[in-house]
Amino acid sequence: MKSIILIGGLLLSSATHQAFAQEQCGKVTIADMNWSSASLIANVDRFILEHGYGCEAELIPGDTMPTSTSMVEKGEPDIAPEIWSNNVKELIARGVNDKRLTIAGNSLSDGGEEGFWVPQYMVDKDPSLKTIEGVIAKVKSFEHPEDPERGAFYGCPAGWGCQISAENLYRALKLDAAGFDLVDPGSGAGLSGSIARAYERKKPWFGYYWAPTAILGKYKMTKVDFGTGIDADHFRDCISQVECAEPKVTMYPSALVQTVTTTAFAERSPQGFEYLGKRSLTNAQMNGLLAWMEDNQADGNIAAEYFLMNHEDIWLKWVPTDVAAKVKSAIKAL
Question: Secretion signal: which residues (predicted)?
Answer without folding.
Answer: 1-21
